[in-house]
């Protein structure tokens, strides 16, 4: 199967070959033809399957077939849950549309709205947006959605997890009733099916991965380990395996920071990416990771959504997710585009119930290994861990450490100030 046989135009084929893609991925093969025919599409696909090209290529073709409307109102709206994902889709739209006369823009929160407003003023054919900023700018009168012909809801499951249902419903009221709809989701809960029913009209269903199952190319393994030995085990696996691009998932933001510090101390370059980090810090971390100057990226589930990192060889679940579907999302970061990948999970006694739930969801019993020196604690409780409580305890401990440090520094401030100066000069050097 070739891109040409899918019915794509010369301008798009040129952009595709410039990107270096040779053959369409399964989701592209299945989704592009019905979208080009004007059907609504409901696709089961996670990040890494090539789903973005699966919907952007046919949208660009459909829009470019008609002359642009006067004032260039938004004709295609792509709604995504996170800023990172929005930015990545925008990059793709620009690359695929290089040889077409279409305008695109991306809008998301957390940054100054004025440049976004200025771009919208010039007219935009394809708009990629996160729900909050979209509704904000619409309410302020900076954009109109009443000429939308093609609506895309990307990562619909994550949208619901992040509490965007009300916003989605508001957006639906702003776009014309007669339109083409495309919806993508990695998992299909009852709520997602209900949402799909409300948005889509007689959709063609396409599956890139079987429902709620994991990609075959990924080798999955569980290391049973005592909770307090997890950091040591992660460092050992990464250092001894000489792993260069590793995405590590933690259950909490503070856990991500703490782990990052431990990696750095062990001589492994690492960066944390989570909701408390500024957009600039996240972008910088991602760039370093892609360039290879950062070997390990430690992320929480929400921050990791939509990160476009091709050919990721290793994913480590430092903490198991308590929502089993998140496991499928996480490991979908590896084994992409036909390359083999490895997803390993460090599982302590208190995560036993999460592991069982994940095995049930993916329909597999995951192979278990124990590393000498990092054995599980036979006396540890299997009662599930409470992450919020863990975060509270961590904050308390940090406060205790800070006040202890303050007391110490007060009592020996003279010696310390010389010491600090020396450290400071060393750093600057
Ligand atoms: P996505 O699932 O859309 O996030 O895409 C995952 C990665 O696969 C991105 O880095 C794309 O650039 C890449 N990709 C998409 N389609 C193809 C293709 N047909 N051949 C090779 N790589 C692709």
Question: Can you tell me about this structure?
Answer:
Helix content is 45%, strand content 14%. It has 429 residues and is α/β, with parallel strands linked by helices. It folds into 2 domains: 4-207, P-loop containing nucleotide triphosphate hydrolases (Rossmann fold, 3-Layer(aba) Sandwich); 218-387, P-loop containing nucleotide triphosphate hydrolases (Rossmann fold, 3-Layer(aba) Sandwich), CATH 3.40.50.300. Helix 2 runs parallel beside helix 3 (51-64), helix 6 (131-139) crosses helix 8 and helix 14 (324-331) packs across helix 15. The N and C termini lie far apart (57 Å). It binds adenosine monophosphate. Residues 21, 24-25, 28, 47-53, 308, 310, 336-337 line the site of adenosine monophosphate. Adenosine monophosphate binds next to helix 3.
